[in-house]
Amino acid sequence: EVQLVESGGGLVQPGGSLRLSCAASGFTFTSYSINWVRQAPGKGLEWLSYISSTSSAIYYADSVKGRFTISRDNAKNSLYLQMNNLRDEDTAVYYCARSASYRLDYWGQGTLVTVSS
Amino acid sequence: EIVLTQSPATLSLSPGERATLSCRATQSVSSYLAWYQQKPGRAPRLLIYDASNRATGIPARFSGSGSGTDFTLTISSLEPEDFAVYYCQQRSNWPLTFGGGTKVEIK
Fold it and tell me: How much is the pLDDT for B3?
């Protein structure tokens, strides 16, 4: 069974940093690209970042470019999102989602990030 | 950036009725469009990919059509578990983008 489990969310002050993790199981992690997608409270879905299976291709949404960094450790079947200089508008549930030809076929349950003083 | 506009924002229907949801792109995305279902407090679930292909385990009452800039998700006969929010997403160009969603609610 394909599973993606996010962790690392929590309360952080504006300007602070947080590192999210996504642990994958039930599939060959090294064969798939992964994305981060977020959803602000009561709002729609926003794609944030993509990393290819070998980390050779990485893309970001303009809203997080220069502040967020995506990475993966294929030896640990894990994906990460380093988030720096957090803003109030970064408050959201953050999902990792597996890519199959850029469609997001499996999603984690999400982790909540709250940016507030 | 390709903007996806979904309509209507809310669709009020009864179980057994047919639901027709629209997604329009600001430029052609060919057939590179997917549809997702999201229920409250849950992660989105892939329903349709490449405009018309049902994902694994998705019932036949869900169908997708369209190409270029205009796409439709049809639910032929609404089941109680189908009342949810539906999003379209394009994979033609970076950044990947989602539509704003259509909420299908019980009338």
Answer: 97
